[in-house]
Design a protein that fits this description.
Length: 412
């Protein structure tokens, strides 16, 4: 029996997981010699492909001169250069980069920045608005701003209260009206959201006009907008950032997952001058007191810098456009199949729901679908009865056929 306790894994009922011995491009290879198409980009982190050569090379080179260096009071070139590039690529006005090491910590940092901002401004605002079905991580703070349910019921006594907006229906007027009413109260410190796609909440999608409308309400009532681009960033929705579709800039933005192309962990929280300036003072109590041991790990920063160079030096936008078109052709085929409903897509992410009477994440359909996909040589992880394909950008037409044929051949 293995000593490993796996995440989101029921050891009582699931067989010992296959061992992966090699990764390359869009594929994982198992110890018993099978090839698996990574249809979920290893939980949404891999963008260009596994072990992308330039990124791997950058890691090799970085280890020739650096390893972890304390980042409080010291700095290094990989972190400095990466921060400059991130500011240049991010939506306008996000001029300050705070490093951490996972999506959850990037969100915790964002929430702390927002609360710190209002405190230092001498304003008592402290309430956080969220959209129902959101996911922002599995730490206590990020669970608090995420959807409550079977995953986190046990920790409910530790979570703080937030104000929930309904998920946008149609043109999203329901969400905008609810937010306007809340924002008027003068109590809202920030609205945190996943722009355009609610990932773990079931790949639920809403139009860019709703995002733009929420930004306007934030402006009208002086509420900070936190965009959690941890999943949507680095091209997933068909543009570099999901916020780009709406032409908006948040006050605070979180990025992780694809930041290093999915090779090593790293995260960054970008903040506007207004947020930074409120913490910048001769009064030392205004210092942003937050750090992780591995903040701005030089090897991870070097990997991220190589990842950024791919955006600067290769035709990424046309690659995303092609992949989007490849996905929509396949989604359209299954949309005509009456076993499925609610086909939806933002850029490279395509999803649809299997019609089942007994939905919900814990339904037996999920594990059976997963087993079927594995048999077909594809790694897919349905969210309840929602099936989605979120591939690395290096997939071919044939790779995508493998994934979508596996979905089509599932006998509910
Ligand atoms: C995955 C995810 C997180 C959490 O990131 P971790 O690196 O797993 O901590 C936060 N927000 C969103 C939108 C995510 O998809």
């Amino acid at each position: 029996m293995s000593a490993v306790w796996h995440p989101f894994f029921q050891h009582a009922t699931e067989p010992q997981p296959p061992q992966i011995t090699r990764t390359e491009g869009a594929y994982l290879e198992t110890a018993d010699g099978r090839r698996l198409l990574d249809g979920v980009s290893s939980w949404w982190v891999v963008t260009h492909g596994h072990r992308q050569p330039q990124i791997v090379q950058a890691i090799r080179e970085a280890t020739e001169s650096l390893d972890q260096v304390i980042f409080a009071g010291l700095t290094h070139a990989p972190a400095e250069e990466l921060a400059t590039e991130l500011v240049g690529m991010a939506p306008a006005g996000l001029d300050h980069v705070f490093y951490s090491d996972s999506g959850s910590t990037a969100v915790e940092v964002a929430l702390k920045m927002a609360l710190g901002y209002w405190r230092h401004e001498g304003d008592g605002r402290h309430r956080i608005a969220v959209i129902e079905d959101s996911y922002h991580g599995d730490t206590i703070g990020t669970m608090s701003v995420g959807e409550r349910g079977v995953f986190n019921a046990a920790y409910d006594p530790l979570m703080f209260a937030v104000d929930r907006l309904p998920f946008p229906a149609g043109d999203g007027q329901n969400t905008l009206d609810a937010f306007e009413a809340l924002a008027k109260s003068g109590q809202m410190a920030a609205l945190i959201l996943e722009p355009l796609v609610l990932g773990a909440g079931g790949m639920r999608m809403y139009p860019a006009t709703v995002l733009a409308g929420l930004r306007q309400i934030c402006d009208r009532h002086d509420v900070l907008l936190i965009a959690d681009e941890v999943m949507t960033g680095w091209g997933r929705t068909g543009r570099l950032w999901a916020c780009d579709h709406a032409g908006i800039a948040p006050d605070i933005m979180c990025t992780s997952k694809g930041l290093t192309g999915g090779v090593v962990p790293l995260a960054a929280t970008l903040a506007s001058g207004r947020i930074f300036d409120a913490h910048c003072s001769t009064d030392r109590t205004r210092t942003f007191y937050h750090s992780s041991s591995y903040t701005a790990n030089p090897i991870a920063c070097a990997a991220a810098l190589a990842q950024v160079r791919l955006w600067q030096d290769s035709p990424m936008q046309s690659r995303l456009d092609d992949l989007g078109a490849m996905q929509s052709a396949r989604l359209a085929r299954l949309a005509a199949d009456d076993r499925f409903e609610n086909p939806r897509q933002w850029g490279t992410v395509a999803a649809l729901d299997l019609k089942v009477r007994d939905g919900g994440y814990l339904a037996e359909t999920g594990p059976r679908m997963r087993a079927h996909f594995m048999e077909k040589g594809v790694l897919l992880r349905p969210l309840g009865n929602t099936v989605y394909v979120l591939p690395p950008y290096c997939v071919t037409e044939e790779d995508l056929d493998l994934a979508w044929d596996a979905i089509a051949s599932f006998q509910g």
